[in-house]
């Protein structure tokens, strides 16, 4: 294994910056710069260049092989977090013949190769590093701490028990001993299948939590859509004017709505377009609104009162102060009714988030579906005594599908894709 190094913290001025070195040469290189180090501990040391110049006074942490994040020997240099210090130390490290700059995600890759994390935990870690909201953090933590692997292990244990029962039946089949194990086998199969299906059901919600929900604000020109968006965003993201047809491109604002990641969309006012550009804007507005998770339809107070049915993915809100009917409406100008609108959106999105479990990616869905398909095959064969051999083969396929979840098999082709989303230093 090579020895790699990289800045683990973000670039730019900060209180402290951390450089990680991982691999067999880590301790040797660090001692060359810092002098003798504790074997598995920490110490305050002067880091010197080869010429003897003091580069920084740093906190140096050492981790023994098998007892570090990567599983390889690790040294962490906790530096003063200025650009100049970071550059000086990185420059010194780049001159060390045993070292190479880490690729994106390469520390985590070492952790995977050294069995410190399974593949699903690596995926969870990737999501955790990207998490912007509380719901994203919680979901990533569930997966990073091994939730999917634990479930897969439980299912696998049941399937291996079913396999042993089937094989015992096959062995006894010659001996005229009437052993009917199928009820127990079928019971084990259906238990797994139900649990796996529940996880498949949750992948959609999990993906929404990771990628974010879209909420589109729609309505006629000049209704105050941009005003409402700016109010929600807390900044002037969209242009407000009393000229109808101001907004043309879709304006996007990312926000954290009670822990849920939401992209708000301000769209062109819907009407018969005044010109060609506006027509394009309106077409885009319709398209994006159609794909959004929720549409907030701004209407006049009169229209709101005349009401009527509307699809339940549509939150219909009436403007507050444009008539005197006195009903509680909404205004992006005064903020009236905005907390209620946010509550309504959040509660709808929370409903959509329900069911997210520890299967959170398309890769997980595919593995589970192929496992479920194998279990279905197995069940239909297990019911007929002359197909038990084939039933056992289907079970092996199902177990294999579970193994791909945690990366015990078929890892190589997915690694590139997973690590491409990591940053350098992770
Ligand atoms: N300084 C620092 N902070 C960090 C990390 C890191 O690598 N370095 N992490 C990186 O993502 C996360 C923590 N994850 C870690 C997981 C395992 C070990 C580790 O060395 N485990 C040893 C025990 C070490 C000890 O107790 O001295 C072990 O399990 O044997 C370190 C960090 C977040 N904070
Ligand atoms: N009285 C009142 N005026 C508002 C309110 N919200 C917005 N306005 C005004 O209505 C005009 C249009 O506001 P915008 O937010 O640009 O409307 P829009 O729906 O985005 O308009 P388009 O870009 O044409 O689709 C501006 O002059 C706003 O100041 C409100 O709640 N009450
Ligand atoms: K506007």
Automatic annotation (TrEMBL):
SUPFAM superfamilies: P-loop containing nucleoside triphosphate hydrolases, TrmE connector domain. Its main location: cytoplasm. Binds 1 potassium ion per subunit. Mg(2+) binds at residues 226, 247. K(+) binds at residues 222, 241, 243, 246. (6S)-5-formyl-5,6,7,8-tetrahydrofolate binds at residues 20, 76, 116, 426. InterPro entries: G_TrmE, GTP-bd, GTP-bd_TrmE_N, GTPase_MnmE, MnmE_dom2, MnmE_helical, P-loop_NTPase, Small_GTP-bd. The keyword Cell membrane does not apply. GO terms for molecular function: GTP binding; GTPase activity; metal ion binding. Gene3D superfamilies: P-loop containing nucleotide triphosphate hydrolases, Probable tRNA modification gtpase trme, domain 1, tRNA modification GTPase MnmE domain 2. It comes from the Bacteria. The keyword Nuclease does not apply. Residues 3-116 form the GTP-binding protein TrmE N-terminal domain. Its cofactor is K(+). Residues 119-423 form the MnmE helical domain. One of its GO terms (cellular component) is cytoplasm. It holds the Pfam family TrmE_N. Its EC number is 3.6.-.-. GO terms for biological process: tRNA methylation; tRNA wobble uridine modification. Belongs to the TRAFAC class TrmE-Era-EngA-EngB-Septin-like GTPase superfamily. TrmE GTPase family. Homodimer. Heterotetramer of two MnmE and two MnmG subunits. This is tRNA modification GTPase MnmE.
